[in-house]
Amino acid sequence: MSFLRAADARDESGHLIRELHGVNLTTILEYLVAAYGWPELDARLRMNCFADSPSVKSSLTFLRRTPWARTKVEELYIKARSAEVQGRPRP
């Protein structure tokens, strides 16, 4: 299945990952923190909510109020989950 694009990757339920079907922002953020950690998220996305006393609660507050930041976080989640499902290394 290495010929599949990241946009075609499906989760365990058969839903396209890029559609974020049934995935809320809290789940996305917790997945990324577990996968990368706060310092790596800050290095990749350059947001103060990941650098200055990061917590899930404060980051969620920022991401819910800032559409461009939420979009960046969702895009990283889609890339990371797609790579995981397809058996490739995380981007």
From TrEMBL:
This is DUF2132 domain-containing protein. InterPro entries: DNA-binding_VF530-like, SAP_dom_sf. It comes from the Bacteria. Pfam families: VF530 (PF09905).
